[in-house]
Amino acid sequence: MKVYVAGKMSAHSEFSSHEWRDEFLSELSELSGISFVSYDPTLGTKDYQDSELVFGSDVHMISQVDLVIVYLSDDISVGASQEILIAKYYSKPVIAFAKPGSKFKVPSKEIAGTIIKDYRHPFVYSTCDLVCEDMEELAEALKHIDEMEVKTLDIIKNANARFEKLHLENKLYQTKTIK
C-alpha cells in the first residue's frame, strides 16, 4: 500500500527524529500485516529555499498514494492540515491518528465561554474519513480501507450549505463593523 504520512518534519518535535515515519509504519505493518511504500515528505525536494517546489513535491506525493495518514501530535504544524485538503482534492482516504487526551479530542473544552462536552476538533473530524486513537484501531481500519467511504472537497460546500440553512435563515450569524 502506498502511503503518505503527514506530520511533524522537525527533529525537534515530540518525535526527536526525522525517521519517526519509518518507525511508525514498521509498527503499523507488524500490526496490520500490510506492507507499505512510504512517500515521505522528507525525501521530496531538497530545495527548501523554493517554497512552491516544496509544496509541489508534497502535492505530487499525495497524488500518487493510496492513503494519507495524518499523525496529529499536539505540536503538529500547519502543513498537515493543508495535506488533508490536498488529499481530499485527489479523493484520497485520510485517516488521522490522534492519541487519547490530545488536543483534538478531549472530554471537555471551553470555547468562547461555553463548555463543549466530548470535544472533537471540527477541522479534523469534518475533513478526515476516520480518526483512530491507537495503533491497533488504525491497523484494523487499514484492513478495510477499500470499504471506507471517502470524503471529497464537497465537504466544504456541504458544510457551508448546512451553516447557511441552520444559522443564516435563523439569523444566528453575526458580524460587526469596526472603525
Layout of helices and strands, plus pairs?
Layout: E1 2-6, H1 20-32, E2 37-38, H2 51-64, E3 67-71, H3 78-89, E4 94-97, E5 105-111, E6 114-120, H4 122-127, E7 130-132, H5 135-143, H6 154-168
Helix pairs in contact: 1-5
Q: Spell the H/E element sequence.
A: EHEHEHEEEHEHH
Mean pLDDT: 88
Radius of gyration: 18 Å
Could you tell me the CATH topology label. Answer: Rossmann fold
The parts where pLDDT drops under 50 for at least 5 residues are: none
Total strand count, please?
Answer: 7
CATH domain class name: Alpha Beta
User: Main β-sheet, in a few words?
Assistant: 5 strands, parallel
Decide which structural class fits the backbone: alpha/beta
Adjacency order of strands in the biggest sheet: 2-1-3-4-7
Q: Please tell me what the overall shape is.
A: globular
Discrete helix count: 6
Alpha carbon gap, first and last residue = 55 Å
Share of β-strand residues: 15-25%
CATH architecture: 3-Layer(aba) Sandwich
> What level of helicity do the residues show?
25-40%
- Total domain count: 1
Observed structural traits:
179 residues; alpha/beta; 5-stranded parallel β-sheet; two-stranded antiparallel ribbon; globular
At a glance:
By secondary structure, the protein is an alpha/beta fold. The protein has helices spanning 20-32, 51-64, 78-89, 122-127, 135-143, 154-168, and strands at 2-6, 37-38, 67-71, 94-97, 105-111, 114-120, 130-132.
Question: Mind explaining what this structure looks like?
Answer:
This protein is of the alpha/beta class and 179 residues long. It has one domain: Rossmann fold, CATH 3.40.50.450. 39% of the residues lie in helices and 18% in strands. It has a 5-stranded parallel sheet with strand order 2-1-3-4-7, with helices on both faces. It has a two-stranded antiparallel ribbon with strand order 5-6. A hairpin with a 2-residue loop joins strand 5 and strand 6. Helix 1 crosses helix 5. The model has no long low-confidence stretch (mean pLDDT 88).
